[in-house]
Amino acid sequence: MTHPQFPDLPWIDADLRIDPAVLAEVEAHALAEYPSECCGFLFGPAAEPERLDEARREVNEADKYHRLDPETFPRTSRTYFKIHELRAARTLDEGAASGRPLKVIYHSHCDAGAYFSAEDAATFAHEGLLTWPCAFLVVSVQAGAIAERRLWVHVPGTNEFRERRLITD
User: Fold this and answer.
1) What are 41-91's pLDDT values in tens digits?
2) Are the C-beta atoms of 16 and 152 separated by less than 8 Å?
3) What are phi and psi of 16, to 5 degrees?
């Protein structure tokens, strides 16, 4: 099945296969940043739409924004993540041009489940449209250990997301 908004990007609405070393890198990042949320990108070859074979850590800018404007950004990295939007846009463009697209944005939840929160949904969908052409991985870290991980995709025409399978080999 393809996403009607991005029909040429099948990973947006598919079960995805992640290399074990890449999942280990994502989980190591989540543990290293705990009790703050981590965030980053997952890439794979365009010719293998379901494959994720590279992770790239990003800086969670939530604390920076909170320090600069705590009224507008009341949450810290403990319960929120913010990716540098211009860098993300450039990364999407560069990945598409290189044949190694950014397929997934990942982040962690601290001492909470790997659900896709209302705030996550509001960040990544607006008026029924997906704002970033990718899927989303949430990793739950509870009491300093990985508890679960879940892959989320946009439900076209809504601001909702549903779970898909993340397959490890």
Assistant:
1) 999 999 999 999 999 999 999 999 999 999 999 999 999 999 999 999 999
2) no
3) -120, 150
Spans of all domains in the chain? 10-168
Question: E strand or H helix at 142, and its extent?
Answer: strand 135-142
One-letter amino acid identity for 55?
Answer: A
Neighbours of 14 (CB within 10 A): 19
First-last CA distance in the chain:
22
What CATH number matches the domain at 10-168, 3.30.70.920, 3.40.190.10, 3.40.140.10, 3.40.50.2300? 3.40.140.10
Sheet (strand 145-154) strand order? 54-58, 39-43, 102-110, 135-142, 145-154, 161-164
Q: Answer whether 0.90 is exceeded by the pTM.
A: yes
Find out whether 60 and 38 touch, Cβ atoms under 8 Å: yes
